[in-house]
Amino acid sequence: MSTRTLTENPTELQPRRRLLRGLPWLVVRQHRTALASVLALTVFGVLWIVYQRHEMLQLVQAAGWPEKEVRYAVDDSRGYGVIASLLSGLPLILAVFVGAPLIAGDRENGTAQLVTTQSVTRRQWLVAKLAFAYGLALVCGLVLSAAFTWWWQPHRSLFYTKWIEGPIFDNTGPVLPALLLFVTAMGITVGVLLRRLVPAMAVTLAFMAISAYVWDEIRMRLGPTQMFTYPKDTELPARFAESYEVDRWVGNADGQLFGWGACAEATDEAQNACIAKHGIVNDVIEYLDHDQMAAMQWTGAGILLAGTAVLTAFVLWRVSRRPL
């Protein structure tokens, strides 16, 4: 029978190896509820997209697609509304429940002071917190954007929603990851300024409403509009089926434009007289083409990432200059 000596290190007493150690492990442990919730939503979103894509393909193939044209097969009744709501709500969740409490919660509870007095510098603590929040936003954004693009891009003619509208434009390509990073940075910034958890979450919620309105206005201006003139009272060429119509006019042979309702007279005779008076012979549309989508998305993502960088720099400066 052998006995253990004091110099032996029994296997069962050795510490378990962790993927994360030190401060990163502490941050993940501290925010494990938010981490698990957001990752669960991401997994649910991907699985729901895969399921809905399968259901859609079965539906349109039964209708004779692709040999037979089938348009607008995706609507709320096919579960698209669930995906649109999830993807539209994810920025709000990250801003209010991850970004806003990230620093404000530690300051209000005294955790920041405790951590930074345990051989961890203030900058190390802040970098670990930011890396957690931005990493979570980036991973979720990339995964969900890739899944939704995989569903939408090859079958975009089956979607009723236009490519320029938020449920499509903001949730495909590089826009969703950039948007999630920006709103997370916005929530963190509000938390740093207010230093209290509940007020930070409330103000972040208000800022989300304002930023959504501003982003809707910016989105429409990310690319230059184009003009197309065609004979009045004729059909718009089929190649414009995927284009987004910004505005519409009528025009004469000299290129002069008039408002679409310039000759909206009460009677046909009056309308014809008005058209003859102005020499109106053409319909004119101002539009954004689907081919511009990629450039517009990268431009928008660049703006959002620049905003994220500015907010992050401000947070680093603010926290390094002010007491915790």
Total tally of structural domains = 2
Low-confidence stretches: none
Give the overall form.
Answer: elongated
Largest sheet: 4 strands, antiparallel
Q: For the residues shown, what is the average pLDDT? A: 85
What key phrases describe this protein's structure?
2 domains; 324 residues; alpha+beta; four-stranded antiparallel sheet; elongated; single chain; 60% helix
Question: What does the model show?
Answer:
There is one protein chain. This protein has 10 helices and 4 strands. By secondary structure, the chain is an alpha+beta fold. The chain has 2 domains: 233 residues; 66 residues, no CATH class. It has a 4-stranded antiparallel β-sheet with strand order 1-4-2-3. A hairpin with a 4-residue loop joins β2 and β3. It starts with 21 loop residues before the first helix and ends with a helix.
Question: What's the gist of this structure?
Answer:
This protein is of the alpha+beta class and 324 residues long.
Task: Please outline the helices and strands.
Blueprint: H1 22-30, H2 32-62, H3 80-109, H4 111-115, H5 122-152, H6 166-169, H7 175-194, H8 197-219, E1 226-231, E2 244-252, E3 257-259, H9 268-278, E4 280-288, H10 293-321
Antiparallel strand pairs: 1-4, 2-3, 2-4
